[in-house]
Amino acid sequence: MIDFTKIDYLKEGNKRQKRAFEVLTRYKVFEKLSSYSPVLAGTVPIEIDIEGSDLDIICEVDLRFEEDFLDDIMFSKLIPVETEIKVENIVVNGIPSIVLNFMLEEFPIEIFGQNKPVTQQNAYRHMITEYRILQEKGEEFKQKIIELKKQGIKTEPAFGMLLNLENPYEDLLKRYNND
User: Where are the domains of the chain?
Assistant: First the structure.
């Protein structure tokens, strides 16, 4: 099993993974976010991304995160000054969360933070579950997921369609996650 809590595996991955590693390393994203336990989640790590897929970085944050991240000098050095940053404060599953979106070169970046360990956040749990299913079901299944995504279907609903899940967001975790 790949250790998804570090990004080193991207160096040995497909072309897009290698490129993501270059960009994340060049801008020292994980280094700058190190105190927030950053993890790259989503479709890029498990090779089911499509053109335009973002790099989802999940973090464990507390109430200081927005102020620290936006106002701190580290942030101005993380991305080019002219980069537009969209910040949203939302509630996900009853947990206050923050979402930051911006571009780094050709990659849309989404940083998602909750006051919860990253390995307990749903984005990470879904990714691990989806990775296990992809390993079990093989390349043909993986290509079907990618095709559904190209048709505009989000990742969890795509898995749900192929696995006949009523509520894929919950059912993926209940049925297929045995941790």
Answer: 8-117, 125-177
**Alpha carbon distance 137, 64 (integer Å):** 42
pLDDT score, position 63: 65
**Pairing of β 86-92 and β 55-60:** unpaired
Q: What is the mean pLDDT of residues 144-161?
A: 96
Return the CATH class of domain 8-117: alpha beta
**β-strand pairing of 55-60 with 107-114:** parallel
Query: Is the pLDDT reported for residue 162 higher than 60?
Result: yes
Tell me the C-alpha distance between 5 and 28, whole Å: 16
pLDDT at 84 over 90: no
45/128 Cα distance (integer angstroms): 10
Q: How far apart are the C-alpha atoms of 24 and 7, rounded to whole Å?
A: 9
Q: How far apart are CA 43 and CA 27, in angstroms?
A: 21
